[in-house]
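About this split. The held-out portion is used to measure sequence recovery: a designer receives only the structure tokens and must propose an amino acid at every position. Recovery is the fraction of positions where the proposal matches the reference. Here is one held-out target exactly as it appears in the evaluation file.
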């Protein structure tokens, strides 16, 4: 059984992963736009950039109502190949009607710790929340999460102290075991208040780590993701689910 309130959706291949992902994104966007006039979504990097670019080409969503954030971001300039926003700017935006100012990005002119604090404040600002003492925590309509070969998600790595961080929504990390070492990341405190999270996972290369989470019940960061009032959906193709 999936951990926490997670649900598994099995599909045949990567093409179907992308198709299912986009059906869920468009449903979440329509609901959010109808309820509040804006769709607030958190993005991750890696293969998700390609999934987003592929699905966007046939999407009929109201792009003008989207506001896009980052579940984690590398502390590099936007023209650096490691910049997640940089990747979305070149690979995703051209397939949409989005403008760059719809993306809430980090300020790399600041020191790393200040950069994380400033991004947290930007999130509060974009949700129209004035109370910053955790009485009201922003609720993202949807977070799109990835999973690394070690089971990390966002920049929350196995056995890292950030897994226990509860007093901030956005945290700096200067010792990422995966380069680049300096990043800012959402913490579980923010993630668990989202309305929904989706892990789109494909390929046999992910099968072992999927097994570790769902069968062996190892407390890996991706498997520890839960939401208080919503769902965590894992979209697995046949390769990724091969060992379940």
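Reference sequence for scoring:
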């Amino acid at each position: 059984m999936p951990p926490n309130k997670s649900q598994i959706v099995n599909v045949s291949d990567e093409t179907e992963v992308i198709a299912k992902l986009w059906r869920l994104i468009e449903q979440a966007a329509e609901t959010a736009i109808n309820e509040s006039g804006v769709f607030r979504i958190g993005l991750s990097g890696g293969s998700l950039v390609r999934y987003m670019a592929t699905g966007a080409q046939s999407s009929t969503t109201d792009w003008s109502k989207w506001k896009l954030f980052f579940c984690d971001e590398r502390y590099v300039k936007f023209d650096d190949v490691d910049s997640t926003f940089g990747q979305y700017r070149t690979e995703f935006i051209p397939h949409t009607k989005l403008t760059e100012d719809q993306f809430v990005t980090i300020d790399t002119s600041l020191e790393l710790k200040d950069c994380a604090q400033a991004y947290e404040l930007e999130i509060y600002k974009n949700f129209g929340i004035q109370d910053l003492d955790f009485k009201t925590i922003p609720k993202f309509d949807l977070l799109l999460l990835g999973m690394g070969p070690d089971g990390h998600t966002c920049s929350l790595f196995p056995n890292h102290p950030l897994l226990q961080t509860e007093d901030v929504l956005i945290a700096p990390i200067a010792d990422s075991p995966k380069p680049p070492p300096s990043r800012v990341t959402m913490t579980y405190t923010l993630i668990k208040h989202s309305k929904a999270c989706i892990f789109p996972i494909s390929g046999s290369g992910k099968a072992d780590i999927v097994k570790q989470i769902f069968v062996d019940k190892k407390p890996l960061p991706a498997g520890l993701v839960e939401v208080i009032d919503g769902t965590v959906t894992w979209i697995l193709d046949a390769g990724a689910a091969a060992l379940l």
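Annotator remark: Residues 14-36 form the longest helix (23 residues).
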